[in-house]
Design a protein that fits this description.
The longest helix is centred in the C-terminal third of the chain and has 11 residues. A three-stranded antiparallel sheet has the order 2-1-3. It contains two helices and three strands. By secondary structure, it is an alpha+beta fold. The two termini are 26 Å apart. Bound molecules: zinc ion (2 copies). One zinc ion binds next to loops.
Amino acid sequence: MALEIRPNCECCDIDLPPHSLAARICTFECTFCADCVDRVLHNACPNCGGGFQPRPIRPRQEWRPGISLATRPASTRRVHLSYNLEDVSAFAERIRAIPAEER
Ligand SMILES: [Zn+2]
Ligand SMILES: [Zn+2]
């Protein structure tokens, strides 16, 4: 199973292509942009409560046979938060002070 590289930020819907340095993910692959993680979510995933890390880049070039963006393409299914912004902000306020490794 490869990482599902999702095409957009769940919060602001900005495009996050596979080579984007702005993509952030939690362990469940919930995907957001760095701006939303910093300013809205405060490093608390609104779906699971976990912290975020930069999403690695999947190489375009086939450095090893069968392993590349072309052979293992990114997802095209856009994902959107199922909570409204008010709820997301309240959730972040509740847990942002707890370090991710202690949640
Ligand atoms: Zn965003
Ligand atoms: Zn999550």
